[in-house]
Amino acid sequence: MTTPDRTHSERGGAGIRFSDVGVTYPNGHHGLRGIDLDIAPGEMVAVVGLSGAGKSTLIRTINGLVPITSGGITVGDTRVDGLRGRALRDLRADVGMVFQGFNLAKRTTVLNNVLMGRLHHTSAWRSLLGAWRRDDVELAMQALERVEIVQKAYVGAAELSGGQQQRVAIARTLAQRPRVVLADEPVASLDPPTSHVVMRDLQRINAELGITVVVNLHFLDLARRYGTRLVGLRAGEVVYDGPGADADESVFEAIYGRSLTAEDVLDAPAVQL
Ligand SMILES: Nc1ncnc2c1ncn2[C@@H]1O[C@H](COP(=O)(O)OP(=O)(O)OP(=O)(O)O)[C@@H](O)[C@H]1O
Ligand SMILES: [Mg+2]
């Protein structure tokens, strides 16, 4: 049971709209083609596809990390393409990101890592001197509570397991008070039980805070289980868009161009030796 979070519940999630989006990289590679997606505020979307299908490209266009080369993207009321400077930084404050490699500052404490999520709202002198506002520290502690790791607040980040580090990374993102959280293969470096713990954290922030979550996943069973909506990409195009639970063998073949193997699922039944 978590405490109701006044600061978050005021914000809720933002919708994301892709209109005929294309990305062609400078070397001529097509990252995405003709993407039309309308993600409602508060949806939890899992994106799957083979390596090179465009999952990371898709997620990174949402916060402007990868510039689109045709079409348009909006997050809430903000048109993403073409944003720069202060407006782009404001968008990125609203759109948190979680990575496969956690990206924590290892030489400092868990709490300091989470406070980094407040940097956008903090003057340079305060962050340089570590003179964080009491409200910001409270928000950071609440974020750690939300991912059930508040007891590690004063521990060095380097002392945590991979799963714990990913939970801290999620807390850091939450401290931003984001309206969207993007996660690019957040469990790819974790063992199966820990993967479920981290996926449940993402599910919880989606359900309790109404934050829109878009998560790239390698394993189809995880995507079906946690993505209320599943988007399948193949060669930069959407080839499936529907409920995770409806993604059956034929959907799998459309996305991967072959049948399902044990490599494609996290919790594959043990092989008889
Ligand atoms: N910076 C880049 N410059 C040129 N081409 C790129 C760049 N990043 C990605 N691509 C190309 O765009 C396509 C989509 O790549 P992307 O990284 O989005 O795939 P992915 O689905 O995330 O793959 P993975 O599962 O391996 O992470 C690929 O053909 C890739 O080679
Ligand atoms: Mg990728």
From TrEMBL:
GO molecular function, one term: ATP binding
Protein name: Phosphonate ABC transporter ATP-binding protein
Cross-referenced InterPro entries: AAA+_ATPase, ABC_transporter-like_ATP-bd, ABC_transporter-like_CS, ABC_transpr_PhnC, MetN_ABC_transporter-like, P-loop_NTPase
Keyword Translocase carried by entry: yes
Keywords of the record: ATP-binding, Cell membrane, Membrane, Nucleotide-binding, Translocase, Transport
UniProt key word Transferase: no
Domain ABC transporter: 16-260
Gene: phnC
SUPFAM superfamilies per the UniProt record, alphabetical: P-loop containing nucleoside triphosphate hydrolases
A Pfam family it matches: ABC_tran
